[in-house]
Every structure is written in structure tokens, then in C-alpha cells.
Amino acid sequence: MADISKAIYTFLAADSNITAQVSTRIYRDRLPQGATMPAIVYTLVSGTVEHHMENAADLANDTYQIDVWASSRSSANSVGELVRLRLDGYYGAFGDEQVGSVTLQTTQHINEEPIDDSDTWLNRYVADYSIWYVSAVPSR
Predict the structure, then answer these.
(1) Quick one: which of 41, 43, 49, 42 has its CA closest to 1?
(2) CA distances from 135 to 46, 60, 70, 81, 98 (A)
(3) Which residue, 105, 109, 138, 113, is CA-closest to 126?
(4) DSSP designation for 130
(5) How confident is the model at residue 58 (pLDDT cuts 50, 70, 90)?
(6) SS3 87
(7) Helix (H, G, I), strand (E, B) or coil at 121
């Protein structure tokens, strides 16, 4: 079975421009409390599997939200742009998986109010990516 979540980490961490900014701070599903900024968080938003008349096809599509968290808007946007340059329009080997296409769907910028007693707001660059990939077909 395809593990696109693992492949996203591997693919982003293999880009020296991205790791120069975030090191290994690429997390699945949530930002750890007290994490050093900037950091990347990726989350599965939705997924579908294609079908034909007899069975599921070997093609799936997942939408991932990739958030860049940073202490400034310019840093969040800069790392978000590095992620876009790495992912948008990509096809081919994706970690151990085979990807047909990755396309950027939407972006937005959000200012996050501090949840502690500080005055430090966080900046969040949010992008949704559609990832088409080869998936296993259930046996009949």
C-alpha cells in the first residue's frame, strides 16, 4: 500500500534549500509545542480511489494541507515558496512511491494569536496540494 505521508517527508527533506531553512522540522499532522521556527506540518485532508466497472483502479488522489509556521510573514512565505517549487508540477519517483502529478490547489496566509502569555504571533502559510499516485488494488 502506498504511504504518501512518509513519501512527503522524504521528498521535502531531500531538498537542501528546504532543509537549510527548517532542518528536520517537518512534522506530520501537528506542530509540537515549543517547536523551533520555521517548521513544516503536513496533514491529509481527503483521499479518493479511482474505480472502473469491475474494481478499484490502481490510481488514487489525496489532498494534503502543508502548513509553514514561522515567526514572520516573510519567513513563512519564503519557506512556502520553497515547498511550492519542490512540489508543484512534480511527477515521478516520490520517496518509495510513484506519483503521476502534484498540483497546488489553494494558498492562504493566517496570523495565529499567541496562546501563551507572550506577544509573539505566529505566521502560517497554508497550501493544499493534490497528489495523484499509484495505489494497490484490493484483491477480489
Answers:
(1) 49
(2) 15, 6, 34, 28, 9
(3) 109
(4) E
(5) confident
(6) helix
(7) coil
Distance, CA of 11 to CA of 92 (rounded, Å)? 11
pLDDT of 115 above 70: no
How many CB atoms sit inside 10 A of residue 72's CB? 13
Predicted TM-score (pTM) of the model is: 0.88
Q: What share of the chain is helix, strand, coil (3-state, %, to 5)?
A: 25, 45, 30
Are residues 69 and 38 in contact, defined by beta-carbon separation less than 8 angstroms? yes
Kindly list the distances between the CA atom of residue 106 and the CA atoms of 26, 81, 120, 130, in Å, as whole numbers in the listed order.
20, 13, 27, 10
Strand order in the sheet with 39-51: 26-28, 39-51, 56-70, 122-134, 97-112, 92-94
All structural domains of the chain with their residue ranges: 4-134
Pairing of strands 26-28, 97-112: unpaired
Domain 4-134 adopts which CATH fold?
STM4215-like (3.30.2000)
- Contact call for residues 77 and 89 (beta carbons, < 8 A): no
Identify the pLDDT of residue 140.
59
